[in-house]
Write a structure and sequence with these properties.
Tyrosyl-Transfer RNA Synthetase; 3-stranded parallel beta sheet; binds adenosine-5'-diphosphate; binds tryptophan; two-stranded parallel ribbon; mainly alpha; elongated; about 10% strand
């Protein structure tokens, strides 16, 4: 069974990204034949600065490897290192109706947010379908926001198969509905667009200070507090073992325990949790050639699969 997913080379990764997207990918490495790629062609629709794009791709690669992507288990590569994906995009375009793309809410959302309504943004789901179909993926784990794109992918694959024969595997989405929605320091969903994130990797002093800014109510120090609605506790839950959670709960309930104490405890747990990842990350930063070699090796393996698909497709559609 082939499991494939793509990640956008977004800015600094935060703990919402870690628990919502990275950890599920890392945990999945033992469940099948896994492919993970950095969607740099997709990023082009929102990131016109070449230096920044290159930098972000490198950082995402380092962060995913530091957090536990094992290149022995996962074919880890850069989307653009397999240019066949753009060839397949074109082939798929001919069976993709404009109506199908017009119905995609992500396009409308992005345009509403001020992105230029260019063709790349409009045909984003076709490139995504090519990412998935090129490697004959069976399962595609994604966040809820990508559900509609997976439906488009399936529609395109079915139409293509109807026209040219049984070529593509029809992929199944794995929608990560059950992952905890990680709250940000203001109590809303953690998101880089809300400026409320706790980065996975950051300077110790700054990160401690950031934790001190987590929202809390004004219950006086002496009074009992409600842990069940508290953002600090919700974050602590991500890192702490049950015994520590029980201690924090009774501290809240007994009173004489301030939010400041809880924030300190949360910070310590967060800092320890990411300690091994931090040291691995530093090693990778110090060895950029090693990171590039991993991506190149991944690309070579991905390309073998891509080549095979493209030969079948060219034959089927009458090209060469
Ligand atoms: P952001 O909201 O910061 O822009 P992205 O949209 O780039 O994050 O999300 C990348 C991945 O991380 C997605 O799969 C998304 O579901 C997951 N993710 C982002 N924020 C959270 C969160 N607060 N809790 C759980 N998962 C999240
Ligand atoms: N569109 C996805 C996102 O924004 C990233 C992505 C690109 C992807 N191609 C993919 C995800 C193929 C899964 C499969 O998160």
């Amino acid at each position: 069974m082939r499991i494939l997913t793509g990640v956008q080379p977004t800015g600094t990764l935060h703990i919402g990204n870690y628990f919502g997207a990275m950890k599920p990918c890392i945990d999945m490495q033992d469940e099948g034949d896994t492919f993970l790629f950095i969607a740099d062609y997709h990023a082009l629709t929102q990131l016109p600065d070449p230096t920044e794009l290159r930098e972000r791709v490198k950082n995402v690669a380092i962060d995913f490897l530091a957090c536990g992507i094992d290149p022995q288990k996962t074919v880890f590569f850069r989307q653009s290192d397999v240019p066949e994906v753009t060839e397949l995009t074109w082939c798929l375009s001919s069976v993709t109706t404009v109506g199908m793309l017009e119905r995609c809410t992500t396009y409308k959302d992005k345009v509403d947010k001020g992105l230029k309504p260019n063709h790349g943004l409009f045909s984003y789901p076709v490139l995504m379908a090519a990412d998935i179909l090129l490697y004959n993926s069976d399962k595609v784990p994604v966040g809820k926001d990508q559900k509609q794109h997976l439906e488009v992918t399936r529609d395109i694959a079915i139409k293509f198969n109807n026209q040219y024969g049984e070529i593509f595997t029809i992929p199944e989405p794995i929608i990560r509905e059950d992952v905890a929605l990680v709250p940000g320091i203001d109590g809303e969903k953690m998101s880089k667009s809300y400026n409320n994130t706790i980065p996975i990797f950051g300077d110790e002093k700054k990160m401690r200070k950031l934790h001190m800014k987590i929202i809390s109510d004004s219950t006086p120090m002496e009074d009992p507090k409600d842990w069940s609605t508290c953002t600090i506790y919700a974050l602590y839950k991500l890192f702490a073992a049950e015994a520590d959670l029980a201690t924090m709960r009774s501290n809240y309930e007994n009173g004489n325990y301030g939010y400041g104490n809880a924030k300190q405890e949360l910070f310590e747990k967060y800092w320890d949790f990411f300690a091994p990842m931090r040291s691995r990350r530093q090693e990778l930063i110090d060895n950029p050639d090693q990171v590039e070699a991993i991506l190149q090796d991944g690309a070579a393996r991905a390309r073998t699969a891509a080549d095979k698909t493209m030969q079948t497709i060219r034959e089927a559609i009458g090209i060469r």
